[in-house]
Recover the amino acids of this structure.
């Protein structure tokens, strides 16, 4: 398994070979946003367009992941909004935390589901 994590950084888009390589022969796409930052969520549209622009076949599974769900007091993206977005783009939704052991079991579930 190879996981390409660009952390949403625009600089990776400038390197055409990196972008092309990351979409070649892809078997799944995991879109991750930060539940504590609405801009992270709204930027998903751009990443989905980029994915579609690189001719990733529609049968390739795509999953939406909201990270940092342990920071309950800082959440800006409600689960209901994320679920509506996921449904509109034919994706499963997972909410998780990479840091909180009580929430991190969903990380395993994401890859098991794929």
């Amino acid at each position: 398994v190879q996981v390409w994590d660009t952390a949403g950084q625009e600089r990776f888009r400038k390197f055409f070979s990196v972008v092309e390589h990351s979409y070649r022969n892809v078997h799944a796409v995991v879109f991750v946003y930060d539940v504590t930052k609405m801009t992270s969520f709204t930027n998903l549209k751009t990443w989905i367009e980029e994915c579609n622009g690189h001719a990733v076949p529609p049968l390739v599974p795509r999953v939406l992941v909201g990270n940092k769900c342990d920071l309950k007091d800082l959440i800006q993206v409600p689960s209901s909004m994320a679920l509506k977005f996921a449904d509109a783009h034919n994706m499963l939704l997972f909410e998780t935390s990479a840091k909180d052991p009580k929430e991190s079991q969903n990380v395993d579930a994401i890859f098991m589901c794929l």
Remarks:
- The first strand starts at residue 29 and ends at 34.
